[in-house]
């Protein structure tokens, strides 16, 4: 293994080395999955014959239960323990830094002369556009069906702790980013894995982890973040427009996505900063209508969520089972610890890595603590989580349509389309960056073409096996990413301490204060 890492050991892997890594990744996966395929009673054919055993293998690894059959899956423990460690290590920065994060988001510290391609708000909107979506609508419903109302409590706890995971990974992304001569920013976990490990004499290990992260990221970007979103968007719109040809919808969606994607992070950020507030306002507004019409029952709904969180009979598997459902769905919803959002935040216009980390910690708060909880309370108020004939988005739609919003399915269909489109454009940037790291910036047009074609294909068929494979790759990204965050966490702690010291002693004025000081100095000189 070390000989392979040495082969990949340079800071910029060559195409030949990357081809070797890609072939090795596929070969090892297929070889390990072969026994599962051989044992199947009726071997699948075509694409399924390749992907099903690999999906089963990775599912067995990522969800291997620690502590017995009803224990915690490996991936759930890996994510939640990392989030807990970072929260304690950094002194609950998710609480202490919240007020300052709001000030940064409002633009008080935005300096147009700082290095970067997008504003703090655009970076946040781009990252949120990749997470605020079907997980907030369908994911919450699934968690509550499987884990009862108590799953929402643990989903919220995981989101709260995940705020710190986002802070760490996005801080590191800005600190270790590459800024090219034309102002283009290259950043993300692959860069802090490479450089951070190199500074510690572990360059081959860091390079190997970076390549692994990129391979997993590419696979994740093409399935669940692309084809699945296109498929669900068509399904939602087809309910409003019966008889709508899927190929026509696919062409339109692919064309719209292509126009945004080709424009790069600047255009993606510009679209996201308008799209995210719009779609959030539509969905949150509908939630508020339901909540206000049942205001007297809200305390009872919250009490049911908290009570069931600690009820050992909440689901099959007891307390551990309900915790697992909540934490697992939180990971899919906000992607804290996955490393995807770090790619978007790396492009932020700032010279202070900690400051961008502050912005990033708002994502799980908005995505999970606010929007997911609104969905959960609506579902508990209506009791639809107890219905067995509905799943995912259908369950949420039923919860709204049985209240004062009989026309909510129309709003939900529009929201699903907006959510899906926003996820498609934001994840295209993540995929482009991982592709550029592996194969060079000059070849990214190849990835863009593949990505846009996948948008079209996703509208035509569900491709469930490929999407399952993609989702597992998404979770797999957490292993190299969080390992890097663990090892580099002392740097983040030291940088945070220095940042607080400068902020609290007046060494970090707002941009308006800087301009006022300059103006005053000029007046005095004259």
Keywords:
2 domains; 526 residues; mainly alpha; Amino acid/polyamine transporter I
Walk me through the structure.
The structure is a single chain. The protein is mainly alpha-helical and 526 residues long. The chain has two domains: 14-62, no CATH class; 74-505, Amino acid/polyamine transporter I (Up-down Bundle). It is 76% helix and 2% strand. A two-stranded antiparallel sheet has the order 1-2. A hairpin with a 5-residue loop joins β3 and β4 (185-186). The longest helix has 38 residues, at 203-240. It is globular, with a radius of gyration of 23 Å. The N and C termini lie far apart (68 Å).
**Main beta sheet, described?**
2 strands, antiparallel
CATH C-level category of the largest domain: Mainly Alpha
| Class derived from helix and strand content | mainly alpha
The mean pLDDT is 79
The fourth-level CATH homologous superfamily of the largest domain is: Amino acid/polyamine transporter I
Brief write-up:
This protein is mostly helical.
Topology:
Blueprint (H helix, E strand, L loop, with lengths): L1 H6 L7 H24 L7 H17 L2 E2 L5 E2 H16 L3 H4 L1 H8 L14 H12 L2 H14 L2 H26 L2 E2 L5 E2 L2 H10 L4 H38 L5 H17 L1 H30 L4 H12 L8 H17 L5 H6 L7 H8 L1 H21 L10 H9 L6 H32 L4 H17 L3 H13 L1 H27 L6 H15 L1
Antiparallel strand pairs: 1-2, 3-4
Helix pairs in contact: 2-3, 3-22, 4-9, 4-15, 4-23, 6-17, 7-13, 7-20, 8-15, 8-18, 8-19, 9-14, 9-15, 9-17, 9-18, 9-23, 10-11, 10-23, 11-20, 11-21, 11-22, 11-23, 12-20, 12-21, 13-18, 13-20, 18-19, 20-21
């Amino acid at each position: 293994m070390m000989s392979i890492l040495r082969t990949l050991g340079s800071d910029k892997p060559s195409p030949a080395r990357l081809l070797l890594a890609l072939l090795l990744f596929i070969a090892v996966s297929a070889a390990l999955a072969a026994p599962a395929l051989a044992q199947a009673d009726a071997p699948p054919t075509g694409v399924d014959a390749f992907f099903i055993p690999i999906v089963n293998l990775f599912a067995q690894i990522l969800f291997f239960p620690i502590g017995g059959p009803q224990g915690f899956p490996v991936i759930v423990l890996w994510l939640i323990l990392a989030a807990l460690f970072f929260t304690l290590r950094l002194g609950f920065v998710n609480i202490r830094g919240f007020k300052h994060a709001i000030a940064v988001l409002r633009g008080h510290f935005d300096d147009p002369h700082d290095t970067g391609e997008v504003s703090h708000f655009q970076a946040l909107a781009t990252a949120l556009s990749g997470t605020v979506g079907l997980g907030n609508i369908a994911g919450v419903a699934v968690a509550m069906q499987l884990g009862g109302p108590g799953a929402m409590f643990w989903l919220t706890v995981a989101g709260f702790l995940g705020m710190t995971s986002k802070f760490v990974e996005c801080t590191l992304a800005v600190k270790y980013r590459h800024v090219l001569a034309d102002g283009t920013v290259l950043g993300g976990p692959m860069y802090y894995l490479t450089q951070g490990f190199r500074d510690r004499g572990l360059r081959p290990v860091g390079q190997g982890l970076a390549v692994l992260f990129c391979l997993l990221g590419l696979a994740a970007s093409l399935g669940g973040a692309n084809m699945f979103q296109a498929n669900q968007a068509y399904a939602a719109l087809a309910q409003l427009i019966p008889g709508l040809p899927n190929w026509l919808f696919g062409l339109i969606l692919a064309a719209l996505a292509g126009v945004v994607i080709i424009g790069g992070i600047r255009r993606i950020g510009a679209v996201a900063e308008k799209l995210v507030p719009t779609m959030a306002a539509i969905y949150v507004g509908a939630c508020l209508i339901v909540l206000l019409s049942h205001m007297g029952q809200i305390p009872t709904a919250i009490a049911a969520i908290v009570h069931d969180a600690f009820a050992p009979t909440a689901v099959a598997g007891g307390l551990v089972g309900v915790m697992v459902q909540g934490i697992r769905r939180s990971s899919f919803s906000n992607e804290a610890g996955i490393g995807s959002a770090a790619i978007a935040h790396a492009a932020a216009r700032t010279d202070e890595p900690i400051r961008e980390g502050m912005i990033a910690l708002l994502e799980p708060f908005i995505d999970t603590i606010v929007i997911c909880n609104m969905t959960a309370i609506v579902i508990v108020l209506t009791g639809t989580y107890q219905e067995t004939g509905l799943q995912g988005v259908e369950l949420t739609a039923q919860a709204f349509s049985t209240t004062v919003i009989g026309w909510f399915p129309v709003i939900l269909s529009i929201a699903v389309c907006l959510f899906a489109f926003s996820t498609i454009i934001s994840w295209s940037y993540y995929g482009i960056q991982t592709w550029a790291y592996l194969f060079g910036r000059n070849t990214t047009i190849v990835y863009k073409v593949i990505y846009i074609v996948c948008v079209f294909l996703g509208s035509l068929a569900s491709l469930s096996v490929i999407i399952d494979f993609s989702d597992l790759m998404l979770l797999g990204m957490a292993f190299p990413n969080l390992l890097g965050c663990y090892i580099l966490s002392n740097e983040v702690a030291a940088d945070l301490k220095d940042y607080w010291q400068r902020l609290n002693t007046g060494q970090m004025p707002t941009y308006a204060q800087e301009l006022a000081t300059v103006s005053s100095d000029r007046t005095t000189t004259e």
